[in-house]
Design a protein that fits this description.
With 202 residues, the protein is mostly beta strands. The chain has one domain: Roll (Pnp Oxidase, Chain A), CATH 2.30.110. The protein has 4 helices and 14 strands. It has helices at residues 16-19, 71-79, 92-97, 108-111; strands spanning 23-24, 26-31, 37-42, 45-49, 54-59, 81-86, 116-118, 125-127, 132-143, 150-161, 166-167, 170-171, 179-181, 187-189. The strands form 4 sheets. Strands 3-2-6-9-10-5-4 form a 7-stranded antiparallel β-sheet, with helices on one face. A 3-stranded antiparallel β-sheet has the order 1-13-14, with no helix packed on it. The mean pLDDT is 97. It comes from Puniceibacterium sediminis.
Length: 202
């Protein structure tokens, strides 16, 4: 099968998200200029550079009470900071609860019963029991082609790792089993890993 996205795929559901999988989930916490807090998951998320460490996530829809975007991007525009919380399998239901198109006054930490903790280098909260959290300073917001498509880039200014996830000096993802996003309504969990040496490595 071949299709041009501009002409449609002819399938019951768009296959694009099912093709680009699995995708890590960035659970983005922000604080508005008025002090209100927001927590929302984004599966268009990844690390993009080592030195300095940088990440990005993309928001692809808008809410009526936020104009051309959603709460996360609106808050980051106002404050210039955010935090990426890594989602473990055990927190899948809380993450899903926070994904709704809630009113901007809604605090998803409270809504989903998620314990919060203060960040160290930026002015917002983080998910207290997340396996890891990346505190970020905004570097740029890029408007992408298409309505309400914004890519947010940030430099990581602080890193939290849960102590039980560090084994023999390594951050061990099998201690918490990362949740990943697939297509449609589907998710996957990582329960197995293997290693490969690049050519020339020993």
């Amino acid at each position: 099968m071949f299709y041009r996205p501009s002409e449609g795929h002819g399938l019951p559901h768009n296959p694009f998200n099912a093709i680009v999988t699995p995708r890590p989930i960035g659970w983005i916490s922000t604080r508005g200029a008025d002090g209100s807090e927001n927590l929302a998951p984004y599966s268009f998320f990844n690390a993009v550079a080592y030195t300095p460490p940088q990440v990005m996530f993309a928001s692809t829809s808008a809410k009526e009470d936020r104009g051309d975007t959603k709460d996360s991007v609106a808050n980051i525009r106002d404050t210039g900071v955010f935090c990426v919380n890594i989602v473990e399998y055990a927190m899948r239901d809380a993450m899903n609860q926070s994904s709704g198109a809630w009113a901007k006054e809604t605090d998803e930490f409270d809504l989903a019963g998620i314990e919060r903790a203060p960040c160290e280098t930026v002015a917002c909260s983080r998910v207290a029991r997340a396996p890891a959290s990346l505190e970020c300073k905004l570097t740029q917001i890029v408007q992408l082609p298409g309505e309400a498509n914004f890519a947010v880039f940030g430099e990581v200014t602080g890193v939290h790792m849960r102590d039980d996830c560090i084994v023999d000096g390594l951050f061990d993802i099998l201690k918490f089993n990362p949740l990943t996003r697939l297509g449609y309504k589907d998710y996957a969990v990582i329960r197995e890993t293997f290693s490969l040496n690049r050519p020339g490595q020993s």
